[in-house]
Specification:
Elements (H helix, E strand, L loop, with lengths): L12 H5 L15 E7 L5 E7 L1 H4 L4 E6 L11 H6 L16 E2 L5 E7 L2 H10 L1 E6 L6 H4 L8 E2 L2 E2 L8 H6 L2 E9 L11 E7 L3 E6 L4 H12 L6 E4 L14 H13 L3 E4 L15 E9 L5 E12 L20 E10 L13 H19 L3 H7 L11 E2 L4 H12 L11 E3 L2 E13 L5 E8 L4 E4 L9 H13 L6 E4 L16 H26 L13 E4 L2 E4 L2 E7 H7 L4 E8 L30 E2 L1 E13 L4 E12 L6 H20 L31 E5 L23 H13 L15
Parallel strand pairs: 1-13, 11-12, 15-16, 17-27, 21-22, 29-30
Antiparallel strand pairs: 1-5, 2-4, 2-6, 3-5, 7-8, 9-14, 10-11, 10-13, 14-15, 18-19, 19-28, 20-21, 20-26, 23-24, 24-25, 28-29
Helix pairs in contact: 9-16, 12-13, 15-16
This protein binds dioxothiomolybdenum(VI) ion.
GO molecular function, one term: iron ion binding
Protein name: Dehydrogenase
Keywords: Molybdenum, Oxidoreductase
Length: 760
């Protein structure tokens, strides 16, 4: 009777493709006004004058807001913010609070007008005077002046600094190379947008394109000086995020603007603004060294990353996978972080692993070639079943099966070790592979379940569907837990007034909210069971609750289907119009975790059913295989087919899971072959500003992608057994492609993206 796992199409799919799903920018209100931001045109400096005389006469202009007259926000205070759950303001720069310009494109004013066009026209006419300094705009130039940060997101950033030198010098075989990756932008299909509606002066509703309604609400409340309960954030549909939809400054700007003009205000970012104002993946220059003994046993891995940041503690953690993969006893993972006068970098799909697996998995291929060993054999020889640094067993790990299944489906055995052996007409054909990995995260979450007298079920949680399938898989879990068909289940998410759930980031949504959904359904069933048992008119009267099972909208005595009672009858005889239960689940041993809300009391889940981070290391693994065709005359690379095998625990929905991996692989093809944001070396402004020059894969760039899952539930992460799946699909992809290019041509390309000029 299991709905879980079935390839059910998205229950929200029809609404999305027929235009009935309301996205943030589509929320309209009587008397709504429109905001358009004004952006700095210098790299660094100060605003010395703002002349709005010209635009005050422009038709429709209602307000010109700048540092001179803007609402005073709470200042930055990391400790107070952390306490308020407001640590992750995308950019540590509460907007319009002073006249300092930190980077080109910074929001420095906002125009509010009767129409979008009027606001936009006026914004371009606002006259700003500056004093300007030269900004730091180039990573290579600035790296010599960089710092070695102590911490990254609460973990030690510099691991075993300097310890790899001796074992590397003693290694029988060594490879050491520099790999570099460019700035990339998320560019979700739906640009960021917010509609702000105030009720009086202390209650605010934000219709915001966000990956976390509770997350955004906490941060907005903090900076606007409001009670958290008084900021409601609504986002039932979000058109992709990939890490860019945290809280960025436009959301505060529009709240400030709406307060100033006393009307609802809408602000929608342009695609050009998305190249500057909502984060990006910073470029990296990575140095990877591997050392093996005479027979190819890895003894040492060293991974150093040079990158940059500004206005954030975040930096691209591209050494992450080098602390997780393979058996080498000695590993050194370090970072240098320079300062650039550029907008803040942020989390972008598999932050760290995306550029990091390019470097590590390319180096693994280089070592295998040097050793004259098949790259899969080399990885199998160095496989680990434990976290190689912390020593914990992986909670559930089938990486060797991923290699084997991938090799079979891909036809790896027909690959030749030596490059330049396969041709198709004028094309050189090559095969490459790489390992994929991403942490299996899980956070505290609360879910409420309601059943009405008609037997309709509503599942509520402040989670988000950023295109991943959250609506659908939640319905499947509730359907199984209650014995009710999927089509009787209404999932309500994307509203901070529902019980709290984590940000839809870090691939943790499924792993976090499903245990809570399951518990809430179990509590609901318990209550129905108690009602039936106590009712003399029920066939279950007087039974032991442990003898009762459920299916098809009813409870029955185990092994005796004739002794049953339907949910409808139980509720009707008890004169109940509805019944409701709410559960909070949290991974145990998660240091510092607090019960997220008074909305739900934590359920009495036996601790062994929760994930124990003290005992196990939670990671997902996979294997990526690429076939490329290279035209040596032009330096062009085509990915002809791709095989991806993923070990991500239980598969909740075969179809939405597959879509996640396909999306990840396409994202990886973009990173491997075309995506790069280029900056003007003089002024530091992006010169690739739209999707016309920031190239992403189009249909013709994407080959058939063959996806397989191991599908074995992780017994330790939760009673559901699912780890996340959003991010692992991109990891290893660019290395698999670059390794295939080497196999095709004998050329080792170490600087992404692999655009044609890199061949010559
Ligand atoms: Mo993901 S980069 O944590 O949205």
């Amino acid at each position: 009777m299991s709905e879980t796992g079935k390839p059910i199409s998205r229950i929200d799919g029809r609404m999305k493709v027929s235009g009935k799903a309301t996205y943030s920018a589509e929320n309209n209100f009587p008397n709504i006004a429109y905001a358009f931001p004004v952006r700095a045109t210098i790299a660094k400096g100060r605003i010395v004058s703002i002349d709005d005389a010209v635009i005050q006469k422009e038709p429709g202009v209602i307000a010109v807001i700048s540092y001179k007259n803007a609402f005073k926000l709470k200042p930055l205070d990391m400790q107070a913010q952390a306490k308020a759950g407001a640590a992750f303001l995308g950019e540590n720069l509460p907007p319009l609070q002073d006249n300092v310009v930190h980077y080109p494109g910074q929001f420095i004013a906002v125009i509010v007008a009767e129409t979008y066009e009027q606001a936009r026209t006026a914004a371009y006419k606002l006259k700003i005077g500056y004093t300007s300094e030269k900004g730091a705009v180039d990573l290579k130039t600035e790296l010599p002046n960089s710092e070695k940060p102590k911490m990254f997101m609460g973990e030690e950033a510099q691991v075993n600094d300097g310890k790899a030198a001796a074992p590397l010098a003693a290694a029988s075989h060594k490879v050491e190379h520099t790999y570099s990756t460019p700035v990339e932008h998320h560019h979700p299909m739906e640009p960021h947008a917010t509609v702000a509606v105030w009720e009086g002066t202390d209650k605010l509703t934000l219709y915001d394109a966000t990956q976390g309604v509770g997350f955004t609400g906490s941060i907005a409340a903090y900076f606007l000086g409001l009670q958290k309960e008084n900021v409601r954030v609504i986002a039932p549909f979000v058109g992709g995020g990939f890490g860019s939809k945290g809280l960025w400054l436009h959301t505060l700007l529009v709240a400030m603007a709406a307060k100033a003009v006393g009307r609802p205000v809408k602000l929608a970012l342009t695609r050009q603004m998305m190249q500057t104002n909502v984060g990006h993946r910073a470029s990296t220059i990575q140095r990877v060294a591997l050392g093996t003994d005479a027979v190819g046993q890895l003894g040492v891995v060293r991974h150093h990353t040079g990158t940059y940041n500004n206005l954030t503690q975040f930096f691209e953690p591209s050494g992450k996978q080098s602390l997780v993969l393979y058996q080498a006893p000695q590993r050194e993972v370090t970072y240098n972080v320079a300062h650039l006068d550029r907008s803040a970098p942020t989390f972008m799909r598999a932050p760290g692993e995306t550029p990091g697996t390019f470097a590590l998995e390319s180096a693994m291929d280089e070592m295998a070639y040097q050793l004259k060993v098949d790259p899969i054999e080399f990885r199998i020889k160095n496989h680990t079943t434990k976290d190689p640094v912390k020593g914990h067993d992986f909670s559930s790990e089938f990486l060797l099966d991923c290699y084997r299944i991938g090799a079979e489906h891909f036809g790896w055995s027909s690959r030749s070790m030596e490059p330049r052996q396969k041709r198709h007409g004028k094309y050189l054909v090559g095969y490459g592979m790489a390992t994929a990995t991403y942490p299996g995260g899980r956070s505290a979450a609360s879910v409420k379940v309601n059943m009405n007298a008609k037997g309709d079920v509503t599942v509520m949680t402040a989670s988000i569907d950023i295109g991943t399938g959250t609506y659908t898989v939640l319905a499947q879990t509730a359907a199984d837990a209650l014995g009710v068909p999927v089509n009787r289940i209404d999932v309500k998410i994307g509203d901070s007034s529902f019980p709290p759930a984590p940000l839809a980031g870090g691939s943790q949504t499924t792993a976090s909210i499903h245990p809570a959904a399951l518990d809430a359904c179990v509590l609901l069933r318990k209550e129905l069971t108690a009602l039936a048992i106590a009712d003399p008119n029920s066939k279950l009267n007087g039974r032991n609750p442990d003898d009762i099972d459920h299916a098809d909208g009813k409870l029955f005595v185990k092994g005796d289907n004739s002794k049953s009672d339907t949910y409808l009858n139980i509720l009707s005889r008890a004169k109940r119009s509805e019944i409701e239960a709410c559960a909070t689940t949290l991974p145990i041993s998660g240091a510092g975790l607090t019960i997220p809300s008074a909305l739900c009391t934590p359920s009495q889940t036996p601790p062994e059913q929760n994930s124990d981070v003290k005992q196990y290391a939670f990671h997902s693994f996979g294997a990526q295989f690429a076939e490329v065709w290279v035209d040596e005359d032009f330096g062009t690379i085509r990915v002809k087919r791709f095989t991806s095998v993923q070990d991500v625990g239980r598969i909740m929905n075969e179809k939405t899971a597959r879509s996640q991996v396909i999306g990840g692989v396409i994202f990886g093809i973009g990173a491997a072959l075309m995506e790069a944001t280029e900056y003007d070396k003089r002024w530091g402004n992006p010169v690739t500003r739209t999707l016309a020059d920031y190239h992403v894969p189009v249909h013709l760039d994407v080959p058939p992608i063959d996806v397989h899952f191991i599908g074995k539930p992780d017994p330790h992460i939760s009673p559901i057994g699912a780890r996340g799946i959003g991010e692992i699909g991109i990891t290893g992809v660019s290395a698999a492609i670059a390794n295939a290019v080497f196999n095709a041509t004998g050329k080792r390309l170490r600087d992404l993206p692999l655009t044609p000029e890199k061949f010559f």
